[in-house]
Design a protein that fits this description.
The structure holds two protein chains of two kinds. By secondary structure, chain A is an alpha+beta fold. Chain A has five helices and eleven strands, in the order ααβββββββββββααα. Chain A has three domains: 69 residues, no CATH class; 157 residues, no CATH class; 66 residues. Classes of the chains: A alpha+beta, B mainly alpha.
């Protein structure tokens, strides 16, 4: 492949220039393929960027994992709960709390729905598992625990709910229902505090990042499998490919044998008819079927 | 009948029946449809309020000739054939000459890599290019913006720029074929002829245009005819790129949209459009073969 036998300096310069041009042209032509590959390595949500990064910043195989295996989301309805999370937000009726390293716990007055995204390490005690398509169902059990990338109670929780956090930053409006003792006022409506425990009055909506969720005496737990049917598609494709090959062979092998080995009336005519329609005329016949003729 | 004839027929019949049913029958049937008023309501099942399915003679063809959409699609399809084939042939010659030059080190490696677009699934390639030409997030417009174009064109929703984009995509999809054919032809050009031209004092450009390309003109003509047929049948790319916008720019797409892309499908007219396209292409292929005399010699 690398056979240089250039006679003089001029030829070497020519070779360097020509090779550089060849590599540049190849780079431009293959750029779309390469760029698509880098896009596949980007974390979710960064695809829609308006700047060109040739080498992705945080390459991840997350997209491949998602396509191959999918992920699990959960919906839980319960009264007692305990959320441990490194970071999150609590939105009340007249206050917003941003906390770090916090635990939200307590007992809601009624069964409250929680939605958890990308759950793992699901552990359920005291309930029977029923499987329905892509859903695992547990009704009325003693205990449930799982990790999740996002934990939310978007309808809000009403009851005796507490937040115990290492750091909080609270923004209030008006005369808040929240008791603000032991907090430092830093702005007009902003308070901060460290190592505090707060009781959350009225309806509090929770939106927390990666964390751990536990509940006792839950009403139900639904774990849904999202996506990840790649191997199902692969299986169906393989079945279709195999069937096509087998069926084609079943129809063609006997005919091929007859054309080759047997002498009979009309042999040439039928063969010619086949050739007409499969060889010479194929380009026209394919007009309605395969526009990408040159790709054969 | 002789015994071997019976045996042969028994062996041939299953394949022949399958062939007739799956290949010939649909063709004949679609030609039949082209002469009927098949449309929503009477095809494939007759409903009470629709006009009954009947033979209408050449009505669909008359409609096609008078339809501005069909005329536009017909004209633009030939425009596309002219532009894309020119670009494809030029790109093919340029790439083959470049990657066949003795000065390029490691050319067989580059040639192997450049075949990649040929091996990719068409659907993937189109998705990639749709993303490349995305007006906001696409790399093409990002680069244009970086180069100082404050308001780069919308390659997907503007018909003119979209047409340019489709040309680029077609060249990208087809150059591996052109390059493979032309490269193998170039490699069969005897060195003696080139060396003789050097001795006669011909420069590089003269050697290329007066010696090498005339020798490989037959393979180039062959691949040009094949690739122009492919351009004429351009369907999948505009359909997936922006099917609604390019409806009256590509003949097959126009036919398809009459049948399956419209709220009032008229299958008879769609079949007529397809039938016209097939006949036109057949005539075009026949004339090109005759002009280039490809059938007479080995290509």
């Amino acid at each position: 492949m690398f056979d240089f036998h250039f006679r003089n300096r001029r030829e070497i310069i020519k070779a360097v220039l020509a090779t550089a041009l060849a590599i540049l042209v190849m780079g431009i032509i293959l750029f779309p393929v390469y760029y698509m590959f880098t896009v596949s390595l980007k974390p979710q949500g960064t695809l829609a960027s308006t700047s060109l990064d040739l080498i992705p910043d945080n390459p991840t195989l997350q997209n491949y994992k998602e396509v191959l295996f999918g992920h699990k989301d959960a919906t839980i309805k319960t009264k007692t709960f305990n959320i441990t999370s490194s970071k999150g937000k609590i939105i009340g009726e007249d206050y917003t709390i941003e906390y770090t390293d916090g635990v939200i716990y307590g007992k809601a007055r009624i069964n409250t729905p929680f939605t958890l995204k990308y759950v793992s390490h699901v552990k359920v005690e005291g309930a029977n598992k029923t499987l329905e398509q892509n859903q695992e169902k547990y009704i009325k059990g003693k205990f449930v625990s799982m990790d999740a990338k996002k934990i939310a109670a978007s309808q809000g929780i009403l009851g005796n709910v507490y937040l115990k956090a290492k750091e909080v930053r609270i923004t209030v409006t008006g005369n808040p229902s929240l008791k603000l003792e032991g907090l430092t006022k830093v702005g007009n409506n902003t308070y901060v505090g460290q190592n505090v425990t707060l009781k959350l009055p009225r309806r509090a909506r929770i939106d927390s990042e990666k964390g751990h969720f536990e509940a006792e005496d839950f009403y139900y737990v639904f774990v849904n499998k999202i996506g990840g049917d790649f191997f199902g598609y692969l299986k169906r494709s393989l079945i279709i490919a195999t069937l096509t090959v087998v069926l084609t062979l079943i129809f063609t092998i006997p005919a091929a044998y007859a054309f080759l080995r047997l002498k009979f009336f009309g042999r040439e005519h039928i063969l010619y008819f086949y050739l007409m329609f499969t060889q010479n005329d194929s380009r026209l016949r394919r007009a309605n079927k395969r526009p990408d003729l040159h790709r054969r | 009948m002789r015994k071997s004839t019976v045996a042969a027929l028994a062996l041939i019949l299953p394949g022949l029946v399958a062939f007739l049913f799956f290949n010939i029958y649909p063709i004949v049937y679609s030609i039949y449809i082209a002469f009927t008023n098949a449309q929503l309501g009477n095809f494939p099942i007759q409903t009470p309020n629709a006009p009954p399915l009947k033979f209408v003679g050449l009505d669909n063809f008359r409609w096609a000739i008078n339809d501005p959409g069909f005329r536009s699609a017909f004209l633009w399809t030939w425009v596309f054939v002219a532009t894309s084939v020119t670009l494809k042939v030029l790109a093919g010659i340029f790439l083959s000459v470049l990657y066949n030059s003795k000065y390029v080190i490691g050319k067989s490696l580059y040639r192997a890599l450049l075949i990649i677009p040929w091996a990719l699934p068409l659907l993937f390639s189109i998705t990639v290019w749709r993303f490349m030409f995305d007006p906001i997030f696409g790399p093409v417009n990002i680069i244009l913006r970086d180069l100082g174009v404050s308001n780069p064109p919308d390659w997907i929703n503007n018909a003119t720029y979209g047409f340019v984009a489709l040309n680029i995509i077609e060249v990208w999809l087809a150059y591996p074929f052109m390059m493979t054919v032309i490269t193998s032809a170039l490699q069969s050009v005897p060195d003696i002829l080139v060396e003789a031209a050097i001795i006669d004092g011909a420069n590089y450009w003269q050697r290329l245009t007066k010696v090498v390309i005339p020798i490989v003109s037959k393979p180039i003509a062959f691949s040009t005819i094949l690739t122009s047929a492919a351009s004429f049948q351009y369907f999948m790319v505009p359909f997936l790129y922006n099917g609604a916008l390019f409806e009256d720019r590509f003949l097959l797409l126009y036919g398809y949209q009459r049948a399956f892309g419209s709220s009032l499908p008229h299958y008879g007219r769609a079949a007529a459009v397809m039938f016209i396209a097939t006949i036109v292409l057949a005539i075009y292929m026949y004339i090109s073969m005759r002009i280039t005399k490809l059938q007479e010699g080995a290509s």
